[in-house]
Hints:
Elements: H1 5-56, H2 61-81, H3 83-106, H4 114-138, H5 143-154
Amino acid sequence: xxxxxxxxxxxxxxxxxxxxxxxxxxxxAKSAYLWSQGLFIAALxxxxxxxxxxxxxxxxxxxxxxxxxxxxxxxxxATNLKLEARSSWHYKKYYVLQALHSRxxxxxxxxxxxxxxxxxAIDRDKMVQELEEEWRRTATTTWAEMLKQAEQTxxxxxxxxxxxxxxxxxxxxxxxx
Length: 177
């Protein structure tokens, strides 16, 4: 029994949707990866530029300090945007969509039924829901998280050694009256 026109239309529509969303996810994955690498290279170049300006050229200390301040700012932004995690998530979604496309195009029976096509659409919906939950758990960033990280990195470290005597405590070899 040949495949009905309605089933063929469903297959074509689902195939077009899978390919379009997969292409978008691949583009987003590449973009996040390239931004991540670009920010890393920018931070590295700022460090090198500050060192070269400070060592070899007669440039104001304020300018060198400004250039030297850029790498931690860039690193803070890159870390909080979670570009590596975003890229990984988009690639994961792309690969799942490609697998569903393969199933639709190459693994359906010769005369697919509405249930065959429906099972692929259901799996797509489950995958989207699971990945969206994963996104909320791992790749989203809130201002509260950014501020918390900023507070942790800006806390002053104690300059006192735990081995140093505290004021008013006896020093070794002395006696206190």
